[in-house]
């Protein structure tokens, strides 16, 4: 039970710290920041695939499947948002 409380404490602290760091980023740096968070999400996808593949218990398999689904959605939507943001910076040619 002690390890659960310490892990929960680290999770909550990381959540608040991450929120504060991202909140203070200027709008010009959002695209590189999104690319970095996509890379972090990809790392979490690999970790969740490892947990799913171990199949130690039914609970860990179910949680691994949920983590794989959530990580995949996060990675795909992050790339879609980054692509949309990059399209906003492209110069448009006026129709002749």
Runs in which pLDDT lies below 50 for 5 or more consecutive residues are none
Structural class: mainly alpha
Task: Tell me the number of helical segments per DSSP (H or I, 4 or more residues long).
Answer: 3
- The radius of gyration over CA amounts to 18 Å
Beta-strand proportion = under 5%
Tell me about the biggest sheet? none
- Cα distance spanning the termini: 69 Å
Shape, per Cα inertia axes: flat
Helical content (DSSP H or I, runs of 4+): over 70%
Q: What is the string of helix and strand elements?
A: HHH
**Strand tally:** 0
Mean pLDDT: 80
Explain how this protein is built:
This protein is mainly α. It contains three helices and no strands. The protein has helices at 2-23, 30-54, 58-88. Helix 2 (30-54) runs antiparallel to helix 3.
Core attributes:
96 residues; flat
Q: Summary?
A:
The chain has 96 residues and is an all-alpha fold.
Tell me the layout of helices and strands.
Layout: H1 2-23, H2 30-54, H3 58-88
């Amino acid at each position: 039970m002690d390890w659960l409380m310490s892990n929960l404490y680290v999770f909550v602290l990381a959540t608040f710290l991450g929120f504060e760091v991202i909140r203070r980023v200027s709008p010009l740096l959002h695209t590189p920041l999104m690319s970095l968070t996509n890379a972090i999400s990809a790392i979490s996808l690999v970790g969740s695939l490892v947990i799913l593949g171990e199949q130690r218990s039914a609970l860990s398999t179910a949680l691994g499947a949920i983590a794989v689904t959530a990580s995949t959605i996060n990675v795909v939507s992050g790339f879609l948002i980054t692509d949309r943001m990059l399209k906003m910076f492209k110069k448009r040619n006026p129709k002749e």
